Amino acid sequence: MRIKRTLVLLVALLACSGTSYAEEGLVSVAGYGAPPQIEGLSGAQRRLMSMRASKLDAYRALAEMVQGFRLAGNSTVAALAVQNDSFRIYVDAYLRGARVVSMNALPEGAYETVLELDMSKLVSESSNQNNFAMRGR
């Protein structure tokens, strides 16, 4: 019961950290990617895959911040001890207007990508699209 209460509190806390502070102004997020440990890849291939992973991670983080996400959790308790604890996050978003601010190399081949999104443009674009969609019906 205590674990379930903790999950409910965690979900409530994450829900409160949504878009309320980001509805106007600039939203900035960072994403990180590590090079794959696959045999046979060249240094350039590892670097490009790390860069791509960091960019996708940044987009995921931006989607979570702007659109929100659904959190599902599962815990198994036996003999009053947690046996298994898992969480899964689902993100489904459509983003337009995000731009890459920087992509920096980190030690050991990892990369950091910083994305930025102007929320005021996002709000005005979405209202224009809704008006266009309504007229088209």
TrEMBL record:
PROSITE patterns listed in its UniProt record: PROKAR_LIPOPROTEIN
Source taxon at top rank: Bacteria
InterPro entries per record: LPP20-like_dom
Record's keyword annotation contains Ubl conjugation: no
Species: Iodobacter ciconiae
Record's keyword annotation contains Repeat: no
Pfam families: LPP20
Keywords (A to Z) from UniProt: Signal
Residue ranges occupied by any Lipoprotein LPP20-like domain in the UniProt entry: 45-118
Coiled-coil residue spans: none
Endpoints of the signal sequence: 1-22
UniProt protein name: Lipoprotein LPP20-like domain-containing protein
